[in-house]
């Protein structure tokens, strides 16, 4: 795709990756993604904001073909999907300086071998004039690594946010046209890479709250020309109380755990508690991560395999521990054939979660009347805990 004009002297550059289905060999990308770079031409100087993932560097380099000079390369984030083509850009424009936070400088030297003399570091709040356009750099750590910053273009009131507010959607749309679709993709993205750092991100949001932001131009997905809804969504994701909702990631081998999950789900629904089920044998882990943004309770369902939890349940526990969701309560249900340490093993895998462990329910073979009654009691306990905690919103 050719470069596209956003405003006078401001252009979208970058690549649309329609075919990518996995990020970091982990995160599902059902809708592909984009790597957005931006070109800002001032009266005196020109800046390129970010680059693209190296496999698509030729697209960016073709867009830069007719650009006569670049004075500054603003690197918001050292991860290679945005920084990886900077060495190629520097080769074409050897006099350009790479503008970064102090932390990003070291990371780009380590990750890409950019020479120390090619950098200009900026402090939080520093400005850089391109002539008639002023870039203000604002440190926003942990969106998504510790070195991240954003750029606010003062005259046009555009926030260039890199991963912050991004969404993985490949599209020819330059601006958001389907807010519902982008909301889901942005929430998925937040859940997968930013949820663990939400207390820092809350401070990042506070830092930008007084800016007059007319447009947010992220480095993945489409540009927000009406940005208030995505700012509101982020405030909810980081700060709102959990919802009256239970997430049940589960796996069942011969049906016993599945029967328990079905029974618990019905009991919870009868008590007015929302449930989202994720059969780990087939689920998209991005969907599970999104549900964890809101859930007050997690119930892991697992059979016992080789004396411990099923490996897929262990994977879900590991993921939840890494994502550090807001959930306050957790339980474990499942089945076994002759013994094991399923509960102890799973419980030891979630030290990061600040949850009360509700009494686990394991049954030998098929669940019987007493286990179904125990599941009813668990549902009642969850309902009561949510009410006591004020988690009443669906
Ligand atoms: Fe889009 Fe953290 O890189």
What secondary-structure arrangement, pairings included, does this model have?
Elements: E1 4-7, E2 10-17, E3 22-23, E4 27-28, E5 33-41, E6 46-49, H1 57-63, E7 72-74, H2 80-83, H3 86-92, E8 97-100, H4 102-112, E9 119-121, E10 127-129, E11 134-139, E12 149-153, E13 158-162, H5 179-193, H6 198-208, E14 215-218, H7 228-239, E15 243-250, H8 256-270, E16 274-279, H9 285-292, E17 295-305, E18 308-309, H10 311-323, E19 329-336, H11 342-347, E20 356-357, E21 361-364, H12 369-389
Parallel strand pairs: 6-7, 7-8, 8-9, 13-14, 15-16, 15-17, 17-19, 19-20, 19-21
Antiparallel strand pairs: 1-2, 2-5, 3-4, 5-6, 10-11, 11-12, 12-13, 17-18
The structure holds MU-OXO-diiron (FEO).
MU-OXO-diiron (FEO) is lined by residues 77, 79, 81-82, 144, 163, 220.
Structure summary:
This protein is of the alpha/beta class and 394 residues long.
Please give a structural write-up.
The chain has 394 residues and is α/β, with parallel strands linked by helices. The protein has two domains: 4-239, 4-Layer Sandwich (Metallo-beta-lactamase, Chain A); 245-386, Flavodoxin domain (Rossmann fold, 3-Layer(aba) Sandwich), CATH 3.40.50.360. Helix content is 33%, strand content 26%. The protein is built from twelve helices and 21 strands. Strands 1-2-5-6-7-8-9 form a seven-stranded mixed β-sheet. Strands 15, 16, 17, 18, 19, 20 and 21 form a seven-stranded mixed β-sheet that branches. The chain has a five-stranded mixed β-sheet with strand order 10-11-12-13-14, covered by helices on one side. A hairpin with a 3-residue loop joins strand 3 and strand 4. The two termini are 43 Å apart. The structure holds MU-OXO-diiron. The site of MU-OXO-diiron has 7 residues, from helix 2.
